[in-house]
Amino acid sequence: MKLKNLAGLIPLLYATSAIAIEPFVVKDIRVEGIQRTEPGTVFSYLPVKVGDKLDDEHAAAAIRALFATGFFKDVRLEMQQGVLIVLVRERPSIASIEINGVKDFPKDTLRDNLKSVGLADGRIFDKSALDKAEQELKRQYVARGKYGVKFSTTVTELERNRVAIIFNVVEGETSKIRQINIIGNQTFNEKKLKDLMQLGTPNWISWFTKNDQYSKQKLSADLETLRSLYLDAGYLEFSIDSTQVSITPDKEHIYITINISEGAKYTVSDVKVSGPENILPHVETRKLIKVQAGDVFSRKELTDSTKKIGDRLGEDGYAFANVNAVPDIDKEKHQVGFTYVVDPGSRAYVRHIDITGNTKTRDLVIRREFRQMEGAWYSASKIKTSKQKVDRLDFFSEVNIETLPVPGTNDQLDVSLAVKEKSTGDFSVGAGISSNVGVVFTGSVTQRNLFGTGNNLSTQINTSKINQVYSVSYTNPYFTDNGVSQGFDVYKRNVNSTYTAISPYLSSTIGGGVRFGVPISDFENTHYGLSAEKTQLTLTDTSSLQMKDYVRIFGPSTSNLVSSVGWSQDSRDSAIYTTAGTVQRAFVEVALPVSNQRFYKLTYQQQWFYPISQNVTLMLNGEAGGAEGYGGLPVPFFKNFYAGGPGSVRGFKPFSIGPRDLNNNSLGGTRRIVGNAELLFPMPGMNKDRSVRLSAFVDVGTVFGLGLTASDSLRYSTGVAVTWVSPVGPLKISVGVPLNKQPSDKLQIFQFTLGSLF
């Protein structure tokens, strides 16, 4: 029987008069032309079944359905003695994708981007997907300032209906910002405005910051920075009229022009409050508002006041409070009044607390730090405290918390905590470099989150010439459910001070102890400990007279039973990247009367972190310590205080500051005073990267008490430091310059400590 062509080309699908067939009942269906596609796949998409009546309309619908799958580039229907024959021609599959000439990107990253637009090995080849892929590659390069990038694509047909795709990329040079022009500014000069912007013209650090490479996102951020500057200075009508970005024909240079209108400077005429007084009295609301009549208008002050009112309502459970400052503008007098409209909404409670990102740390370890409970009224302060306590575990590089309304309700919300775990095992290495000693190393091994339980296990093995230590310490921070911690320490320590700045002696100490921590509040704790140790001393011919007198009185072997009491308070906003808050620590150590010695030691430390600006923080640190004997006995010389080096006065060799013996070796002392002032700020061009932080410091400190006063040995230094949370651990580097060095001082200008994570 002669075959009848029922349908063919796509254009004919919509021309019903182009094909007129006599309808027939489908007795069977046969698929021809497939190579990779299973017949069942074709049948599943075909809207015609055996027994159906096929006419022009149904035939067109069948062809449209098969084309819509994207598997075929040609589809035809034929009929032979009541059998519907589906003739298809498959699109080729992608056998391989090759990218040549790429230097700026990892090829795997580009492959992932191509995959997102439908181009990957094994997928059906689609010309439209290839066009999208080229656009995606170009977008990636343009985002890096390479506007001159060129692409050429080759598609080679292979056997078994496959194709190989080759992208040839000529990256070209990065386009640089040649000039930035700001037009319309009168209040602030152009230099001040440009200094606030991320984008800029090339300078000595542009190779690192990349600030001379144009980015649409960076420009948008810079425009918002300019807007904030003017709105915070009272220019309510400030506007950015236009922004032009042009590139030279050779694609090498970019010119940016920003046109602004400053408008007039506005003052605040009046401030009113509207809202229910039974929930938050207006008198209390006014105390939270920083904007007052007569002040210069500031958007920042306005926003801060709105946030404070919202936070205050959040303390009482009103999580969905809505606070708006409605303006009343008088353009003739250049004044603006505000009415704070307070709508507390419904009081809300927390339905669920969800934790994500903790692949190692157990949920219990995180949940026990929460002060906001499920099923309880929402409290903004408890949410904040919970975040701070999870942050202070120091198990995570990021801790983010969100409150999400429960759909369909107006009095419930879920708390979502997302963490990003970091390595909590440390192989710590300390080093110092000087001209007379060279490099000195120390080390220890610690796991602060043992098996994800939150317990701390530390094993120190140090076989250096100076300090041989073998110790094991274990701490369970939740020995009881209410947060009482328990820990123990076992150690053997051999000291050979011959290679240090300390007067030479050798000691071998073995000991152990138990300790407990009792919480007073969320950020305040007390600590109690009891330890026993035995020390064997060996002196040399050059040991100090004080050391020889001590051995003559007590002998070369001594035993001590030492009790300790401590107190700590930590109100820092973050342990990862501190910008505000304080830390206080006090510690008392007493040798009990059953010991060979009779002495006590007291130490106190306080740190202040004060945010000077959004990115700059001032850190002040003060430490004081004192030791005394009782019962007519002296303080053991190996319990003396020392100063100098990282952690006290940088620029001086560790332990070198203070009283000296006849050989100019340090003796330590029974009194210690250390002060540090440090200005912390981000690496230029890396404001959002919290892994690197720079600082400028001034250190002062001394050790005294052995016939000397504090002023006899007070030392000062200044310098710069960098802290980097590197892939191999936290790295701290400092360059310190002594300000009042004496001829007998031992200096160490460059110092660093490095922790290696595993």
UniProtKB/TrEMBL annotation:
This is Outer membrane protein assembly factor BamA. NCBIfam families: OM_YaeT. HAMAP family: OM_assembly_BamA. The gene is bamA. Residues 1-20 form the signal peptide. The lineage of its organism: Bacteria, Pseudomonadati, Pseudomonadota, Betaproteobacteria, Nitrosomonadales. Gene3D superfamilies: membrane protein fhac, membrane protein fhac: a member of the omp85/tpsb transporter family. Keywords: Cell outer membrane, Membrane, Repeat, Signal, Transmembrane, Transmembrane beta strand. Belongs to the BamA family. It comes from the Bacteria. Part of the Bam complex. Part of the outer membrane protein assembly complex, which is involved in assembly and insertion of beta-barrel proteins into the outer membrane. PANTHER family: OUTER MEMBRANE PROTEIN ASSEMBLY FACTOR BAMA (PTHR12815:SF23), SORTING AND ASSEMBLY MACHINERY SAMM50 PROTEIN FAMILY MEMBER (PTHR12815). It is found in: Cell outer membrane; Membrane. It holds the Pfam family Omp85. It comes from Candidatus Nitrotoga arctica. Residues 24-91, 92-172, 175-263, 266-345, 348-422 form the POTRA domain.
